[in-house]
Input
Amino acid sequence: MSTLPSNGKRYVLVTAAYNEERHIGRLIESIIAQTVRPLLWVIVSDGSTDRTDEIVHRYAVDLGFIELHRIDEDHPRNFAAQVHAINRGLAILKRLDYQFIGNVDADISFDPGYFSDLLKVFAAEQRLGLAGGSICEMQEGEFRLRPLNRESSVAHAVQLFRRECFESLGGAYIPLPYGGPDWYAVVKSRMNGWRVRSIPELNAFHHRPPTSTSGWVRASFRQGRMDYSLGTHPLFEMLRLMRRVQSGPILLRASARLAGFIFSYLTAERRMVSREFIRFLRKEELRRLRQFFK
Output
């Protein structure tokens, strides 16, 4: 039976799930198996029409730390929908006494010691405000680290915040028209003086099958618009994508992302972030560019 850490550090989790019957059971089993379980885990079913609610409810009946919350009202199925669902769960968790709060995607799983080890990293680094494991995806029949993992950034699927850090962000994720609430949280946390780190030794296994080529092209075009909306410097955007360009699908996806960025740039779309945020982001990007050219 898992217990709370001896140092008294408690964590809570939220998961937004929409028709996740293929994956949610695996995630729940991996959280049950943790050597240190969450104080409370709120799973928000965002109008699911499959067996998601049934699966979660079956576990919640027997396990006191899982709570199912359902959203029934109609709303657009866009990139803000998941954020609104997560924020519903976060609002429920605010009443509790905890030190860490995290988001976990429904198609992820972990080894049993994942959260115990992650809490130890937080305990050793008092200015660490946001951390998580490294995403692994299935390649040629085995899980391998995703090539685009970076130690300076934590994927949305596994973001765990120190409570003070998350409250400095306003205590909620920001719904953005083209996505990127995780990226915003990463940059804003550093802007507020907190350290952000992905832990290479901690694996988070991503189980959703790859998107089709046409789906990747649409997603990449949207990501280019996301980059613009968050204030990415045009020079940084071009050089970052040039480094990824090789051939085949990678070339197509990078080209689509650049096209999305240029489209938003030429149409002068209104950005949803502050000028202070953009200045801080571009300062970081220009520093990385200088390091690259050196």
In short: Residues 1-7 have pLDDT under 50 and may be disordered.
